[in-house]
């Protein structure tokens, strides 16, 4: 199956290169339109666990 895909890709080089270029341009435009936060939230969520150990020294 992979052999057929490789053979087809080599036979249709121009189509494969055109599709790759379109995907590259589309990804670049999508990345350029993404909102960028100047000060991102860097605080990690925290969980506090309080457990009693009776009979042990502090």
Structure description:
One of its GO terms (cellular component) is membrane. With 58 residues, the protein is mostly helical. Helices cover 53% and strands 0% of the residues. The chain has 2 helices and no strands. The mean pLDDT is 90.
What are the key terms here?
53% helix, 58 residues, Acrflvin-R, Efflux RND transporter permease subunit, transmembrane transporter activity
List the helices and strands and how they pair.
Layout lengths: L1 H10 L1 H21 L25
Structure classification: mainly alpha
Total DSSP E strands: 0
Shape call: elongated
Radius of gyration: 27 Å
Total helical elements: 2
Uncertain stretches of 5 or more adjacent residues: none
State mean pLDDT (0 to 100 scale).
Answer: 90
The description of the largest β-sheet is: none
SS strand fraction: under 5%
> How many angstroms separate the termini?
67 Å
Helix content: 40-55%
Oligomerization state of this entry?
single chain
Which H/E pattern describes the elements?
HH
GO cellular component, one term: membrane
InterPro entries: Acrflvin-R (IPR001036)
Protein name: Efflux RND transporter permease subunit
Organism: Candidatus Tanganyikabacteria bacterium
């Amino acid at each position: 199956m992979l052999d057929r895909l490789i053979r087809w890709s080599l036979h249709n080089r121009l189509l494969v290169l055109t599709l790759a270029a379109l995907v590259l341009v589309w990804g670049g435009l999508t990345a350029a339109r993404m909102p960028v936060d100047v000060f991102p939230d860097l605080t990690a969520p925290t969980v506090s666990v309080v457990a009693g150990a009776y009979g042990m020294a502090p």
